[in-house]
Specification:
489 residues; alpha/beta; FAD/NAD(P)-binding domain; 3 domains; binds flavin-adenine dinucleotide; binds nicotinamide-adenine-dinucleotide
């Protein structure tokens, strides 16, 4: 069930007497963004009310990052058992219990849940109200039997799966990220519509756990990423047995539970036992009555300036609801930014040139700043691109993880973007996040000493590539060295 469909019903059903509350900061939505603001603001002395209509922790904890990474981890275990031959370990076909893998997923959620819990936030002095809410005027929000006015309001209501109105979709059972992690019967053949991060992370987890998987992608899979880097991931996914059909726009759905047919625009038909819809997100803004508060929004989310203020200057929007980058760490960054302005009245704006992200397939795909194509468009011939392949990294060779490469986009000695496709790319990109956040020069990475043998050496080697033509292919350097060698005692 989509939690937000219950909003109106819950508001109408309330028969309790009305309580009026005044507070410094009112936060709507207790997900990654809202919780960051609540923790920071309350611990720094502000009076905070936090509204949550569904589960504390929002999407990331309950239906997103956490369960998806836990299921990926289960798939990784199964894959390792059947792929040990090159290390001298006899491969075995693991016996997978899909339901037990889901138990693992829920144990992981339960372990992390106390950090996001109502009790923890109440312990910090936050008043937590478990109600859906909407604006009734420019300063007031109604949440069940409460009417709350605040000096500042934060919209952190997140997003939900976008489910397109494909004819026939309403006649078959289908999963989204809100239901998939509760499914306990193993899909024999999972069809996934959408070849973005959700689709491909779940495709690999499922194929490794023993399901047959077909991904139907209307355009190009991982289409937001650098195509050269995306290819590294797609080649591996295909090699593991996932069928990835690109240019296949789902147009009609037929069949019934266990035998679902997807008809695509070019006349092809794909059949499977289960269907996962992973075609993007829709911001949770349509049920907030934003018009009553003078807050503009569109299908991408609430309109904000770079200070994350909405068209109502007392109201901010952060995280997925703000329709910018949709990641947990970005929701947290948004939260930290607005705390400066809400609590201290200091000017605070977000930057968007240093946002990292990673897709947790195996191999992983990570990006920070501009891709090569974006950098080429912005800087044309001022751009220099350096690369280094995983297959020249000794640790990667030792571990049999030689697929992939790093690319760094550099303008006048300063990196403007980095892309990594390969093992642990999400960890390795952090060096470049530091570089971009602090506008460091490439020399800062070249000067760093990396312990040997680590995968992270690829970062230093890529930086070193910047100096290769300058030092090793430079006739002036060669002349100077020859001269100095002659005169040195
Ligand atoms: C399958 C999947 C995997 C993902 N993996 C990653 C990943 O690996 N890394 C990453 O960085 N990001 C990942 N994301 C994205 C990440 O989950 C989101 O970017 C993040 O959760 C956004 O945080 P938020 O605070 O904006 O919204 P949410 O976390 O969604 O929180 C919004 C909260 O607001 C509540 N709410 C909504 N409307 C109301 C209302 N009217 N009144 C009261 N409460 C309301 C909701 O119930 C919800 O709890 C993933 C997403 C999905 C779907
Ligand atoms: N590792 C991570 O950080 C992570 C993981 C999962 C999700 N997320 C977040 O969630 C967001 C949403 O992920 P997503 O994968 O759902 O969305 P997405 O928008 O990234 O990808 C959806 C894909 O579906 C395709 N598509 C749309 N309609 C289609 C149709 N009718 N038939 C076939 N294909 C169709 C699109 O071309 C697109 O490639 C991500 O952009 C990201 O912000 C992050």
């Amino acid at each position: 069930m989509n939690a937000l469909n219950t909003t109106d019903a819950m508001l109408k059903e309330s028969t309790e007497p009305m309580e009026k509350i005044k507070t410094d900061i009112l936060i709507i939505g207790a997900g990654s963004g809202g919780l960051s603001v609540a923790a920071g603001a309350s611990q720094m002395g502000a009076d905070v009310v936090l509204l949550e209509g569904h589960k504390m922790g929002g999407d990331c904890l309950n239906f997103g990052c956490v369960p998806s990474k836990a299921l990926i981890a289960a798939g990784k275990q199964a894959h390792a058992m059947s792929h040990g031959a090159k290390f001298g370990v006899t491969p075995v076909m693991p016996e997978v219990s899909y339901a037990a893998a889901k138990d693992h997923v829920h144990k992981v959620i339960d372990t992390i849940a106390p950090v996001d819990s109502q009790e923890r936030f109440e312990g910090m002095g936050v008043r937590v109200i478990r109600e859906f809410s909407k604006f009734i005027d420019a300063k007031t929000v109604q949440a069940g039997p409460y009417q709350i006015t605040a000096r500042r309001v934060v919209i952190s209501t997140g997003s939900r799966p976008f489910v397109p109105p494909i004819p026939g979709l309403d006649t078959v059972p289908y999963e989204t990220n809100e239901t998939l992690f509760d499914l306990r019967e193993q899909p024999e053949h999972l069809i996934i519509i959408g070849g973005g991060p959700i689709g491909l992370e779940m495709a690999q987890a499922h194929v490794r756990l023993g399901s047959k998987v077909t991904v139907l992608e209307g355009a190009k899979a991982l289409g937001r990423d650098d195509p050269e880097m995306a290819e590294v991931v797609l080649n591996r996914l295909r090699a593991e047995g996932i069928e990835i059909a690109e240019g296949q726009i789902a147009e009609k759905i037929a069949g019934s539970a266990g035998a679902i047919e997807i008809h695509t625009k070019d006349g092809s038909v794909f059949a499977g036992s289960h269907l996962l819809m992973a075609v993007g997100r829709q911001p949770n803004v349509d049920k907030l009555d934003l018009e009553k508060a003078g807050i503009e929004y569109d299908r991408r989310g609430v309109k904000t300036d770079m200070a994350l203020k909405t068209t109502n200057s007392k109201v901010y929007a952060i995280g997925d609801a703000a329709g910018r980058h949709q990641f947990t760490h970005v929701a947290g960054y948004h939260g930290a930014t607005i705390i400066r302005s809400m609590l201290f009245g200091l000017p605070a704006k977000i930057r968007e040139d240093h946002i990292p992200y990673a897709t947790y397939t195996d191999p992983e795909l990570a990006q920070v700043g501009l891709t090569e194509a974006q950098a080429r468009e912005a800087y044309s011939d001022k751009l220099e691109v350096v690369r280094f392949p995983y297959h020249e990294n000794d640790r990667a060779i030792a571990e049999g993880k030689t697929e992939g490469l790093i690319k760094v986009m550099i303008v006048k000695g300063r990196p403007v973007g980095a892309s990594i496709a390969g093992a642990h790319a999400g960890e390795l990109i952090q060096t470049w996040s530091l570089v971009l956040a602090n506008k460091l020069k490439i020399g800062a990475v070249a000067a760093m000493i990396a312990p040997y043998p680590t995968l992270a050496e690829i970062n230093k080697r890529a930086a070193g590539q910047y100096y290769v033509p300058r030092l090793f292919d430079n006739p002036t350097v060669k002349r100077v060295v020859r001269f100095v060698q002659k005169v040195l005692p």
